Amino acid sequence: MLRRLFVTLPLATLSVLGAAVRPSAAQAPAPPPAAPTSATALGVVHDRTGGPIAGATVRTDPGGVTATTDAAGQFAIAVAPGDVLVIDAPGFEAALVAIEGDGAIDVELVPLATVGEVIELTDTKPKEVAGAVSLTREELATLPGTGGDLLASLDALPGVTDPSGFGGGGNQGVIIRGSAPEDSRILLDGFDIPQLYHFLNRSIIPTRAVAGLDYLPGGFDVKYGRASSGIVSVTSRGGGDKVEGVSEVSVIDASVLGSSPIGDDGKLLVSFRRSYIDAYLPALLPPEVGLVTAPRYYDGIIRADWDVSDRLRGALTVVGSDDLTELVATDDQTAEEFKFRADTKFIRAIAAGYWRGDHGLTIDAGLSTLAQGVSFEFSDQFLKVTQLSVAGRAEVSKRYPTLAGLTDVVVRGGAEFDPRRATIELSLNQGRDEGEADTGMDGPLQTFDDTVWLTDLAAWSAIEASLAPTLRFSAGVRVDAFVRNGAYPVQPRGELTARPDARTKLRLAAGRYTRPAEFQGELLTPALEPESATQLTLGGERTIGRHGNVQLTVYDTERTDMITRDPMGQLRNQGRGRSYGVDLLGSYRTERWFGWLSYSLSRSTRRDTATAVERLFDYDQTHDLVAAVSYKTRSKRWQFGGKWTYTSGQPTTPVLGAFYDSDQDLFLPINGEVNSERLPSHHQLDLRVDHFWRFEDWTLSAFLDVSNAYLNAKVEQYQYNFDYSQRAEIAGLPIVPSIGLRGEL
Amino acid sequence: MRTAILVVLAAALAGCNDLSQRWELDHARVLAVRLSAPGLAPGGVATVDALVVDDAGAPTVVAPRLVGLADPADAAVVTVAPGGGGWTVTAGDAAAIAAARAAAGLTDDQPLAITLGTIVTIAGVDHVATKQVRLGEALVNPPTPVIHVDGVAATDTPAPVAFDRDVALTLGGVTPADELAFDWLTSTGALTHSETAAATLTLAPDDAPTGHVVAIVRSDGGGAAWATAAIAAP
């Protein structure tokens, strides 16, 4: 049985016990003899629509006291300090709830996975911040326009931009609140993964191998570092208590996933996927495009879980990906001049352990290795990188009913290390830096052939406590050590949470965040300091009726020590910037309807030097609107969905003219003010239809997903002619249909 | 990486958009700037002219409206002045050039390259171009070529060409060599191998039946020479 954790607590605070490994009721320690009780907890258990769940079993852990919900879903149970509640009901995922405060406990259970659409929701309340979003896999996997791809659904979240174009070619990662992709981190089970997307925005981790996804756009906990903007944290999924098998075939790729229990204490999940768009895409393109090959990718994930003892649970996850993008023109002259090949592959293994002791003591630890290879060729330019890493992290947490006059106190401390060895060989143009005009592949050439050692260390500590029944704070400090750069930034962070009523939650967070100077060419300049950001976030969330929820977040981020290039071409920490805006997220969810409205209004500006003119970031996006709705028929055989998006165009630097270098026979552009123009704004409609056939032992489903249904291709970039007297729009794919079949045991 | 993908796709899609190709004479621009002597010995003098094309695709040779030094500090080694309906460039004396060479870290046998800025007016619109003059050594331009259309030297009379047939464009008076670069341009039809000594012109039925072809020869030493020819299809 899959275990999940999802609770709405109007007056009590929810805790998730561990990020990399999450204990479940079945995996929780066996109940010791009943402990002395000190209080009675009252609560109600209901389903997603608010309907009461009668007959649910409520058990204290480690106390071992049990109770059963009545017809109204209500329960009363004697609890001792440090107890957590395990709630089980037939047909529903189990939930695990920490008891904090004196208020009534409100527990929402989610139905067990039927066709694999329901996931473990990784509630992130301990590290939840204003603007954070967690959604069920069911919601994300069926969101139109994503091809059922969980991570591609990130684009629908407020504050997220993906201007990567051409289906994510370049795997740039996630752009959060106007900052560059390298300012944010993508984590799998607590450790970095080098890339998030394959070509066509396909996640490298299949939806069914994901247990949950936490989107933390800013103001995050001291547990997370090395990011000056946001965090995307993905938790892999363990196997279930029964044998499962899922196979999916679409026009883009095919995948197979299986999971099975191993003995009484183990579970195994294996997934593999391979694309085959390279087999037919060239034949579908117009002849004048003349490509003879196209991208292809593999990915796979294996996860084994083991309950070592009643108190200790371990998991081993191995994830790997291999992307090859090779473009060869059929025209001989073009093929000779523009041969392009990029091969990116990585494999990461993660061993994680979670231990829970008495009296609220927990230890969450992980050890991981990463092997990564990047090979890139463009005509006579090339880049070859191999990287090996052994990283580890651990956090110890202890809960106290009272401490130093405070109530319901949680004290945490942790540390991590991430030494890496990178062998870099390159002869490549230095690339386009933030704000620079695109020079194609004609920029200044830089060469390097050496081995670089990077050692990043960190330690943190935090305390959380209740100041009043409706007011809670957390405060902590994180110290990073970027050894190669000789930088040791101290980053204090804090948050205040208020719950003025059962339906409303307010959060105020502030803190300092840093990103090490380890992105691409920054590796070649050890003297750089990390980039810093001071974030201030104010957010509110309110439940409306039984089915609605609205979330509003205001943020202001001041950036300092930004890395820019001086007139001599050297990288220096001389820039400053600011990002501010409002994120709005509303949702409406019933058994059959799912509505979604996300809107971001933001502005990101910067000065590259103290005397430079203020300009927009490359990734500034004024408006970002996503409206989506899906409907499931009463028979549940059909599901229809649509998503409409509107986004402001990406800033761009206009070319005002050019002068002619007659000796080189070359026109050199005269650029206007940096990012003083925008590409055209974009809007598109994505549609999705699912149909299900349910048989005795298995389910077959078919889907049709059409991205950009009315063929409004997005302008990705301007292309100029040789003397910059004319320009044309380079647009993305006008329409991306995907059709597929899925069979599930 | 993304830049590279865009570059490749842009190259692959080059034939799918309406952007002008380098060999197309379809809008006004400067095609070449020439000094009568690209390298000057101390005290040597050169004049400046430019080959331009107008919006109709007709090439002409004009004198720049203005010529100046890109770096005013170079006035110690070269002077630029109007005269004779155009502009003259005069090298300084040997001592000044030697001093400038030494300051630039050049050996005695290396020419001192000075960048000139020019403004050329085409149909009332100014166009900016740069040109280097090499000081310390007298250099000459490549010989003036003669355009051959299908093996026949072009004259003042439009050379005959035909639709839907490859027309051979070759040069007389110039021997291809490593130090020479070639550039063909046309106001009608399409060119292939436009950056070699011999190009091929093809006129589609919807192309203009008359036009011009231009050949420019550039040398490593900053020299330039050109030829133009009118063409006409029956």
Quickly describe the structure:
The complex is a heterodimer of chains A (745) and B (234). Chain A is 3% helix and 54% strand.
Descriptive account of the structure:
Chain A is 3% helix and 54% strand. Chain B has helices at residues 2-12, 94-103, and strands at residues 29-35, 39-40, 45-53, 59-62, 66-69, 78-83, 86-91, 112-122, 125-135, 146-149, 152-153, 159-160, 166-172, 180-186, 190-192, 199-202, 210-219, 224-232. In chain B, the strands form four sheets. In chain B, strands 1, 3, 4, 6 and 7 form a five-stranded antiparallel sheet that branches. In chain B, strands 11-10-13-16-15 form a five-stranded antiparallel sheet, with no helix packed on it. Chain B is elongated and about 60 Å long. Chain B has two domains: 29-135, Sandwich (Immunoglobulin-like); 141-232, Immunoglobulin-like (Sandwich). Helices cover 9% and strands 46% of the residues of chain B. Strand 35 of chain A pairs parallel with strand 9 (125-135) of chain B.
Write the layout of secondary structure elements.
The complex is a heterodimer of chains A (about 750) and B (about 230).
Chain A: E1 39-46, E2 57-61, E3 66-68, E4 74-79, E5 84-88, E6 95-98, E7 105-108, H1 137-141, E8 160-161, E9 175-176, E10 185-188, E11 191-192, E12 210-216, E13 231-236, E14 244-250, E15 253-262, E16 266-275, H2 277-284, E17 296-307, E18 312-327, H3 332-337, E19 340-356, E20 361-378, E21 381-403, E22 406-429, E23 445-468, E24 471-482, E25 490-501, E26 504-515, E27 531-544, E28 548-565, E29 571-589, E30 593-607, E31 615-616, E32 623-632, E33 638-647, E34 651-652, E35 655-661, E36 666-671, E37 677-678, E38 682-694, E39 699-707, E40 715-720, E41 727-731, E42 736-744
Parallel strand pairs in A: 1-7, 10-13
Antiparallel strand pairs in A: 1-4, 2-3, 2-5, 5-6, 8-9, 10-11, 12-13, 14-15, 14-42, 15-16, 16-17, 17-18, 18-19, 19-20, 20-21, 21-22, 22-23, 23-24, 24-25, 25-26, 26-27, 27-28, 28-29, 29-30, 30-31, 30-32, 32-33, 33-38, 34-37, 35-36, 38-39, 39-42, 40-41
Chain B: H1 2-12, E1 29-35, E2 39-40, E3 45-53, E4 59-62, E5 66-69, E6 78-83, E7 86-91, H2 94-103, E8 112-122, E9 125-135, E10 146-149, E11 152-153, E12 159-160, E13 166-172, E14 180-186, E15 190-192, E16 199-202, E17 210-219, E18 224-232
